[in-house]
Amino acid sequence: GDSVTQMEGPVTLSEEAFLTINCTYTATGYPSLFWYVQYPGEGLQLLLKATKADDKGSNKGFEATYRKETTSFHLEKGSVQVSDSAVYFCALEGRTGANNLFFGTGTRLTVIP
Amino acid sequence: EAQVTQNPRYLITVTGKKLTVTCSQNMNHEYMSWYRQDPGLGLRQIYYSMNVEVTDKGDVPEGYKVSRKEKRNFPLILESPSPNQTSLYFCASSLKSTGGAYNEQFFGPGTRLTVL
Question: Is B58 in Cβ contact with A100 (below 8 Å)?
C-alpha cells in the first residue's frame, strides 16, 4: 500500500545551518506530495507541495523536489532560523481521493541560536 | 477569521464514559477529516467526510464514530473510550478536490485526550 518514510529525528541545528529532512514514498502512480509543518501547540499547516515529477515546491525559504526516479521528496533550507523550530511532516495524496493524505511520522527540528 | 475550531482542547476521562469532541469550520468546506497523532506514528486518519451525510472510514476507525448532519460540523464520538485512545486529535477541512487538483487542508488546534 501507499506509505511515506521520513527521516528519524530529532534534528538539532545551529542558526544559519543547512537543513535536509529526508522523505521517500511508496505509491501506485504519481501522487501529489506535500510537506506540512506543526509549530508548538498548533495544528499542521501546509508548507509546500508538488503535484508531478520534477516539480519543485517552495515556501519561506524551504524547497523540495519531486524525484520520481528515487521516489523522494527531501525538504531543504539553506539557512535555518530559530523560528523554524517545529515538527515537519511529509505526506502523499491517497488513492481514495485527492483530499486524503498519508503522513510520515514527523521530524522534530530544533534550531539553537 | 477563517478557522477550524475544536472543543475541548484538553480532556481527561475514564474508561467507558462516552465523550464527544466537536469540530467546526467556517470556510464552507465540503471535506472534513479526523486524525490522531501518536509518538513515532505520525498522523493517522480516523474518519473523513466528503459532504453532508457522507462519511467513510480512514485507516484507524475502530472505537470511533462520526456524523455529518451539517456542513460546518463534524463531531468525533467515542462511545466507550479505552486507554489506547489516549492521543492528540486533529480535525481538518478543505474544499473538495476534483480533477486532480489538490486543495489545502486546514487543521484545528488539536484536542489532547487522556483516558484513564
Answer: yes
